[in-house]
Amino acid sequence: MAGPRxxxxxxxxxxxxxREKVWEHxxxxxxxxxxxxxRGRIPNFKGSLQAGSSLGELDxxxxxxxxxxxxxxxxxxxxxxxxxxxxxxxxxxxxxxxGLFNRIVPPPGATKExxxxxxxxxxxxDYSVPVGLDGKAQVDLVVVGSVAVSEKGWRIxxxxxxxxxxxxxxxxxxxxxxxxxxxxxxxxxxxxxIAEELMDDHDLTVDxxxxxxxxxxxxxxxxxxxxxxxxxxxxxxxxxxxxxKTLRCREEQAGKDVTLRDEHxxxxxxxxxxxxxxxxxxxxxxxxxxxxxAPVGQPQVESDPGNPKSEGSGTVTTxxxxxxxxxxRVSELKSALRELQVIPVGLNWQxxxxxxxxxxxxxxxxxxxxxxxxxxxxxxxxxxAELAKSQRSKGQGEISSHK
Length: 403
Description:
By secondary structure, the chain is an alpha/beta fold. It has helices at residues 2-7, 15-28, 48-53, 59-63, 76-84, 112-118, 121-126, 162-173, 235-240, 242-253, 268-285, 330-340, 363-373, 396-400, and strands spanning 66-69, 88-92, 101-104, 128-131, 141-144, 148-149, 155-156, 182-185, 208-210, 215-217, 317-322, 346-350, 355-360, 377-378, 381-382, 384-387.
């Protein structure tokens, strides 16, 4: 454990604190690999292929017939190991948009080179067939990516909850059992102490950790999620994941309580307050719009763009986007944000100053926006993206220091 403790000497106090420290260390130490930056992602690292190939040495892998491996880049070695061992390889569809699994089907007589291609993200797209809810998948081994993990088996992902949801959906489908082993693949520096109180009951734990130098069996006794916890699912998530709607209908017909988080009677007042705050925020930050009356050359802003003030919006995180080309229209930036799936709740357009400020409801969404936009080419310019300086020091003066 000397390596991880040297890498992360202070005890992080929250999941986001841990994520930030891991991402920062991987970049600063030269361990981060493509795709970069690793912030906001399940990070790829030097030695990931080597760590993934050691999956073949696990007894649970040798006994498995169907293996589910997430589509993240650092798990490419694990996908290749499954294909080379002629296992049935299932890969979740990105963000669960079009279903739950794709089954990777290499062409007959596939060479090692073709199998290597099948293990890449492009190969997953080119050599796969969708597996529906009635595909009778029986997953014998689950491989997930992590941002951080402890030797006790506590896992922290990138903050979107898709790995936890995938597992819960597999339980609901009957595709995994209570004793189905879960493996994660990380760099040694991503193995660190995590306080159990940071774990939620919907968080997926792991049984094995593979690093470039070690195989760790966690002997974790904490129960894994026993199915979908509908009271923690929002209407927004339900709208984004079509297969979740189908599962909800099935469970409702089976007599289960499928009340969503924002439909729960106990949360009714909270939901109404949140809706009210959303309207206030929309009025203050002009989402997807800029006031037409602003004089040419003046910032199109009604309030401090880095620190929008509205009741209940204390958690708003603002992203500064600079080096916008003079010819760029706000509609083109909006289109790029939609394509990257990092749509803000508010946008302050300052085209004459070649910049914009994007407002997000949570830190995770803001960090994903920074990771997606930094260096993106729009109109021939490589964009600058970072958290607005007012996140650390409030006031218009700090905002105006962005050039």
